[in-house]
Amino acid sequence: MEDAVVVRDLVVDRGRRRVLQGISCAVPRGAVTGLLGPSGSGKTTLMRALVGVQTVRSGTVTVLGRPAGAPELRRRVGYLTQASSIYADLTVRENARYFAALHGRGHAEADRAVADVGLADAAGQLVGTLSGGQRSRASLACALVGDPELVVLDEPTVGQDPVLRADLWARFHEMAAAGTTLLVSSHVMDEAARCDRLLLIREGRLIADDTPDAVRAATGVNDLEEAFLRLIRASEAGQRHAGREAS
């Protein structure tokens, strides 16, 4: 089966700064792929390119067999941004039911999405009264209510307590087991071990594209954070060597 997402030689500039520097990668279907890297590394820009809302300089992005941003993908792709994308003057339940209606879904599906993100007890609260972590989960419920084939989640666990983080990751894997493809970004390296596959990005370059076990084996360490540090040092050394040869 073909990959859900295929990126080839993607270059993105913002002003005079090159944010993505020729990235090529793939996101396998029916798995949880982690997009990890420090803040400012280009994770959000790559995700925006996948959902078709980012202007690119060159390269291609294919999503579910179609060019990223194609109109027919709107009902097939769910996207959770870091900023809240729901209505503060509606309750959690009302938001979920509104987005469900846009996808032709009923109240039962909306209420189930709210429960799945741990907000059943807060379903009647106005979104404007929620904590930051609760608001993020309410946005997540609205992103999932249409049962998309591909879900792109930009740091969905930020601000969540450890128990809720574990519950959300369990839900992500349940979705993947049912056939949904998930791309989940994080700057918290301990979440890498929860993923089926990893994309490590730094300063707009892809440093690794492999399974957690393969990353550990390639670097000779069990700790993924230390493994990433070794990959980053090796990449930087390779860039310095290339630069000396070019000069």
Automatic annotation (TrEMBL):
Keywords carried by this UniProt record: ATP-binding, Nucleotide-binding
Keyword Nucleotide-binding: yes
Cited Pfam families: ABC_tran
Superkingdom field: Bacteria
Record flagged with keyword Nucleotide-binding: yes
Segments forming domain ABC transporter: 5-228
GO molecular function: ATP binding; ATP hydrolysis activity
The organism of origin for this protein: Micromonospora kangleipakensis
PANTHER family: ABC TRANSPORTER G FAMILY MEMBER 20 ISOFORM X1, ATP-BINDING CASSETTE, SUB-FAMILY H, MEMBER 1
Name assigned to this protein: ABC-2 type transport system ATP-binding protein
Transmembrane domains' residue ranges: none
